[in-house]
Amino acid sequence: MKSKLLLTLMLIGTILLNYSCSATKKFAKTNPDVSTFIGSWVGESRTDGTLTTWLQKRFADGTYTILFIQINDNEVVRNIESGKWWIENGKFYEISSNVMEKPDIFEYRIVSGDLISFKSTTVDYQFVDKRIEENYFDKIPLY
Questions:
Q1: Alpha-carbon distance 92 to 103, whole Å?
Q2: Helix/strand number for the chain, H first, E second
Q3: pTM, full prediction
Q4: Which of 132, 78, 128 is nearest to 108 (CA)?
Q5: Do 120 and 45 contact (CB within 8 A), yes or no?
Q6: CA distance linking residue 6 with residue 10, whole number of Å
Q7: What CA–CA distance (Å, rounded) separates 35 from 69?
Q8: Pick from 105, 125, 127: which is nearest to 117 by CA?
Q9: If you ran DSSP here, which 8-state letter would residue 24 be given?
Q10: Using a CB cutoff of 8 Å and minimum separation of 24, what contacts does 55-60 make?
């Protein structure tokens, strides 16, 4: 239990310390869905016996920071990614220039203000992001 708490605290600290403050790509603020994507989100997916879970913070300037945790058997792999996101022609785009050459492109459906469903346009992959409270990070006790 302590290792899960420590992992959660590391995740939160990393996200808060590693987000970008400015965007170099023009951000499409005129799209009415943009404001729905801004905030803190959690999600997970299971593929080939591996559980991947994440915490993501999307900022109004079109940048994001995400912490991935992959669990496969007894192995835990953590990865932090920062990049840019935008909406164009009804699709959601996300790119981290240090990880990928082309953006990931997703069809999306806003289920509610707190749930967004994503489906990749290039591979068989889909997931749901769930909004978490902005000050949720402030409420976790430090031991």
A1: 10
A2: 2, 8
A3: 0.73
A4: 128
A5: no
A6: 6
A7: 26
A8: 127
A9: S
A10: 55/11, 55/12, 55/15, 55/132, 56/15, 56/129, 57/15, 57/19, 58/85, 59/19, 59/20, 60/35
Top-ranked range on mean pLDDT: pick from 11-25, 101-115, 121-135 = 101-115
Per-residue pLDDT of 14-65, as tens digits, reads 554 444 333 334 454 556 678 899 999 999 999 888 999 999 999 999 999 9
For residue 126, give the amino acid letter. Answer: Q
Return the CATH number of the domain spanning residue range 2-135: 2.40.128.360
- Cα separation, 129 vs 102, in Å, equals 22
> Do 14 and 67 meet the contact criterion of CB atoms below 8 Å apart?
yes
In the block, which residue shows the tokens 């990070």? 137
Ranges assigned E (strand) in 48-99 = 50-58, 63-72, 75-88, 91-95
